[in-house]
């Protein structure tokens, strides 16, 4: 479609503004005034409405199509959560109000949400306290690692290294590195799980902690996870739970019971807040007893008279990590979602997420290679190695899926799987939707054998075909008008 | 050509060839280039920098992943092929000649002999795949 600028017709306008009968007096220096007219598009109101409506129709999301993007847990966002977050009593609150004299009494409802959310997350994760402040998962990681560092500093520990598995999300080593730690990667064993012997060899007094997703990025639950946490504790290290894959075990297992000391959650994954284009996110962090003193300020406390207030009295806090109290509107949605689901609902969420992933895995096994084909959790990782023999790569399978009306799975991640296709259906999808996707994947596998060139040409039905994936990275000024 | 018979290899897919005297030429194997896909960014060291064997001397980033590149032999960087970061597609065309990345003056030339030869590297990538 044309750009709105290309649709411009000289002299066309959406409305005519009445001539001002107030004398104008602009006292700006001439050098500050525009010499030529701004090149804005000239269009009628209807032109503009049609343009943006057409653009909106090109949106692809969970509300329009199946979106099995592995590791991202693209679940449906129930509309009732949106509706409650939009209540004027929440949406129109000024974020500074609780900090003003007497303002706390005007925001008791919002403070109670923060307090209660802390309580329900404690229960779900087996932690002693949560902070709602981190603005997204990666921010939560940094917050967690800074608390880890504060703990070691407080105890006089000399720690230099954070361990991560070789299948880790890239943000784990990045967060630990920004917090000042060196990183060592623990290799996986032949079952796709962290190699315990390698971990034992790498453990020493300099290890500050380990960061794990559980289940891991292959969708596999490590039955030795308690042993891993115990081993790390034996050198006074801390076990960090990356909550990216919590959807696989929520309601069934609590990270705290597995031995983890710090947990961050990606509310947009497990608790169905919107995955915006980069945000706003929310990444609450929970800790066990020995780390509670280091939580960021402020926290919400419940006074003896039942009212709620902000507490800044935390001498050992790592300090401020975010303005206000985090992305309130986002964790409010998650709070509604959790209360709606309840304990039974959360159990069914993980149950169905796991069932759906295993259903896809078993149905597609005859058509795609899978290195770790055992029972998986919320996601399964196939490899397009069989298709590569006909010149069809994971990328081409993904592009073929676009033509079939599905969002492609995550590709080429985790890095330890060649030609990886990482599929996460979530619990939200019906059997009919899953079957439709499975059939599309089987069709593509057949095409890879009989007419691979059609996959190389895909997508042909999308607004754009194959993009130049390197141009924007190589020409950094590509969007510059100058 | 996926593997150059004149070169020795690291498991991280760097190749190294004898240039003259104590000088060695280093690049990335054609197999690695193929696996990486389109390359978007490359960072190479300045001439004069010194690294030990196994140190990261540069960074390569493709549409699929980012990775460090490691020194097959310790020593001083005496020359850098600055044309490659400007036009990384040349690696696809000729990974073993025009696509060389750095030249090293080795502190211990015997390290060369400890690296994988053509046959060993071939077996390595076959078992890896």
Provide keyphrases for this structure.
heterodimer; A: 482 residues; alpha/beta; Aspartate Aminotransferase, domain 2; Aspartate Aminotransferase, domain 1; 3 domains; 7-stranded mixed sheet; 3-stranded antiparallel sheet; 12 strands; globular; B: 129 residues; alpha+beta; OB fold (Dihydrolipoamide Acetyltransferase, E2P)
What does the oligomeric state look like here?
heterodimer
DSSP helix fraction of chain B: 10-25%
Can you tell me the CATH architecture of the largest domain in chain A? 3-Layer(aba) Sandwich
Which fold name is given in CATH as the topology of chain B?
A: OB fold (Dihydrolipoamide Acetyltransferase, E2P)
The chain-level mean pLDDT of chain B equals: 92
The radius of gyration computed from the alpha-carbon positions of chain A, rounded to a whole number of angstroms, is 26 Å
Q: What is the straight-line distance between the termini of chain B? A: 18 Å
CATH domain class name of the largest domain in chain A: Alpha Beta
Strand order of the largest sheet of chain A: 1-7-6-5-4-2-3
* Number of domain units of chain A: 3
Biggest sheet features of chain B: 6 strands, antiparallel
Number of strands of chain A: 12
Task: Please report the number of helical segments of chain B.
Answer: 4
Task: Please characterize this protein's 3D structure.
The complex is a heterodimer of chains A (482) and B (129). By secondary structure, chain A is of the alpha/beta class. Chain A folds into three domains: 1-15 and 39-55, no CATH class; 79-340, Type I PLP-dependent aspartate aminotransferase-like (Major domain) (Aspartate Aminotransferase, domain 2, 3-Layer(aba) Sandwich), CATH 3.40.640; 350-457, Aspartate Aminotransferase, domain 1. Chain A is built from 16 helices and twelve strands. Chain A has helices spanning 45-57, 79-85, 88-91, 108-125, 137-155, 171-178, 196-202, 225-233, 255-258, 267-270, 328-364, 385-388, 394-403, 431-450, 452-457, 471-474, and strands at residues 129-131, 161-165, 182-186, 207-213, 238-242, 262-264, 285-287, 299-302, 308-311, 380-383, 410-411, 420-423. In chain A, the strands form three sheets. Chain A has a seven-stranded mixed β-sheet with strand order 1-7-6-5-4-2-3, sandwiched between helices. Chain A has a three-stranded antiparallel β-sheet with strand order 10-12-11, covered by helices on one side. Chain B has one domain (9-110): OB fold (Dihydrolipoamide Acetyltransferase, E2P) (Beta Barrel), CATH 2.40.50. In chain B, the strands form two sheets. In chain B, strands 1-2-3-9-8-5 form a six-stranded antiparallel β-sheet. Chain B has a three-stranded antiparallel β-sheet with strand order 4-6-7. Chain B is globular, with a radius of gyration of 13 Å. Chains A and B meet through loops of A and strand 4 of B.
